[in-house]
Write a structure and sequence with these properties.
The chain has 254 residues and is an alpha/beta fold. Helices cover 31% and strands 30% of the residues. α4 (118-126) crosses α6. The chain is globular and about 50 Å long. Residues 1-18 and 239-254 have low confidence and may be disordered.
Length: 254
């Protein structure tokens, strides 16, 4: 079994997608952390993606989409240099689905896996600027992280956190652009807390496999990634199940 680098940088800070080496990388990326499932193929600096809103399930779509993308580009699965996936945080079922598909392909091909933070992918998908990436975590909570985005360079300003909309830690400074469905669920609360620091909100933006691929390509080009067996989701939330009392305390139903 090939050995891969233990070090991998899911944000790829300061690395652009234009170098010859990065362009030459071929990889599949999977993103299923939200209702928007997607698969992307990065090849020779080009990106192709298939996606659809799938409120539940979707396991039957990812591999066929991957096969279609490869066929359309004229590549065989064996020509891939690696596999990437949106590692989280996000929906637990979707994270396990994307991780499982990535692991299975990478294991069979003897290729590395690049886990990519979904909030970083969300920030990249939204465009340049100071981005507050926020996803609905259910259970009266949100996942939130802050980034500075410039082209394909994504610099983490605040690490991913989870908490109630009224109390979750938010970044300092002005000019933040809020993105993600966390603003659809808790936009009023977050907006009131941020005040004038929040320049805009786009609650319809979600993480994409294309963004995952853009972040993974330079990591893979540098020899990064992990063996398939070591690829795991990033849940952020330590405790998934709440007691009835805890749900009621957070405003949830019995």
């Amino acid at each position: 079994m090939r050995k891969f680098s233990e070090h991998h940088n899911t944000l790829a800070p300061g690395v652009r997608g234009g170098s010859t080496r990065i362009r030459a990388v071929k990889l599949l990326a999977f993103e299923a952390s939200t209702r928007r499932l997607s698969v992307a193929l990065w090849h020779d600096g080009a990106l192709a993606e298939k996606s659809a809103d799938v409120p539940s399930g979707g396991s039957e779509r990812l591999l066929p989409w991957a096969g279609e993308l490869l066929a359309e580009a004229g590549y065989a699965m064996s020509q891939l240099d690696g596999i990437a996936f949106g590692a989280g945080p996000g929906g637990f079922t979707g994270l396990r689905l994307a991780c499982g598909v990535a692991q299975g392909l990478a294991w069979g091909l003897d290729r590395p896996v690049v886990p990519v933070g979904t909030l970083a992918a969300l920030a990249l998908a939204s465009g340049d600027g100071r981005v507050l990436a926020c996803l609905d975590a259910r259970m009266h909570e949100v996942y939130v992280a802050a980034y500075s985005v410039n082209g394909d360079a994504v610099e983490e300003v605040m690490a991913a956190k989870v908490g109630a909309g009224e109390t979750v830690e938010l970044p300092a400074g002005d000019g933040w652009h809020g993105v993600g469905d966390g603003f659809a669920a808790w936009g009023g609360v977050l907006g009131a807390r941020l005040g004038d620091r929040l320049a805009s909100v786009r609650a319809d933006v979600l993480p994409t496999a294309a963004a995952v691929a853009r972040l993974a390509a330079p990591v893979l080009a540098r020899g990064g990634g992990v063996p398939a067996v070591e690829a795991v989701p990033l849940y952020v939330r330590d405790k998934v199940a709440l007691t009835t009392a805890e749900r009621l305390a957070r405003g949830g139903a019995r």
